[in-house]
What we know:
18% strand, alpha/beta, 11 helices
Amino acid sequence: MLxxxxxxxAGIAARRRGLFPEPxxxxxxxxxxxxxxxxxxxxxxxxxxxxxGGDLAGEELSWTVGFGPRTRAYLLRPRGAAGPLxxxxxxxxxxxxxxxxxxxxxxxxxxxxxxxxxLRARLYGRRGYAGELARRGFAVLAHDVxxxxxxxxxxxxxxxxxxxxxxxxxRAARDHEHVLAKACTLLGTxxxxxxxxxxxxAAAYLRSRPDVASVAAIGLSGGGARAALxxxxxxxxxxxxxAAMVASFRDFRExxxxxxxxxxxxxxxxxxxxxxxxxxxxxxxxxxxxxxxADPLFPAEGVRRAHRQITGAxxxxxxxxTGAFFDAxxxxxxxxxxxxxxxxxxxxxxxxxxxxxxx
Length: 359
C-alpha cells in the first residue's frame, strides 16, 4: 500500500496491531462501535408528490433525520400492483458526483439531467436501474444520503465560466471530502458510520410501510459498500447485492487506495476483519456479490481472494452466497443488473416475468 522503502510499515502494523483477523460472531456489534453509527430515524415522513409513468407508480418522499436538509427519496413500484411487495433499498453510488444522489439510479416525474444521462451511460448501461427492479415486482426506495443530492453540504464553488453548477459543485465536494471525514472522526463517528445510520433509517422506514413485505439492499461501488454494511448492521435485511465493491484489502496497492472514498476506509475497520470478512458477516443470510474482472479500482488477486473468503464464510450455508464474475469494468451494466434482479426475485420474491423494459 505504501511505495518503496515505506512498504515495510505494512508488516510492522500487521505484527503489532493484528490486522485482518478472522471475524467472530460479535463482528456486527463491534462494527457498529468502530464505525460510530449514530442512532437516526426517518421522522416526519411526507409524500411530496405522486406520479405514474408507463408501467410504474412513483412517490417523492421526504423526511428528517434530525440534522441538515430534509432527505428526498423516490419510491417506485409496479403500477396497479396489489398486496405487499418485496422491498429493496437501492443505494446510489459515489462516482465523484455529489450534486446528485438518488437521481443517478431512479427516475422521478421529470426527465434526468444531462449529467445524469452521461453518468448512467458510463456506469449503469444507460438505465435508471431502480425502475427496472420495480418492474420486476419490487417496491424500490432510492434515497439521497449524507453529502449527496438533497443532503449535500453548502460549499463555495470554484470559478469556471465554462462548467455547469453541478460540475463545479462536484469538484468542490471531491476536494472537501477529507475535511468531512476528519470532522466525522472528531465527532466520534466516521463518514461510513453516518452513511450507515441514514441507510438504517431508510430501511426502517421502508419496512414500516404496510405495502412492503420485506427489505433487501442493492448498490454499485460506494452504494455497494453501503448495501453491504446495511446487511451486516440490520439483521432484518432479507438479501444483499453488492456490485463492483468487494476485494481483499490485503492486496491493495497505492493506486487502489487512492481510487476510493474515505467511506471505504473508516479508522479501525481492518482490526476487525478484512473487507470480505465484513461483507460476509451477514452469513448465513442471502448475499450476492458481482465481480467485474476488468475493474481497475481493485486488484485482480484481491477480487479472487475475496470470493474464496466469502465462499468459506458460507460453507455451512450452501446456496446462500452467489459470487458471479463478469467481463466488465467498474460498472453495473445491464447484464449484471439482470443477473442481480433474477437472483433477488428468486431469493425474496418479485414477479416471475419482468415487465417490458421501456428504458
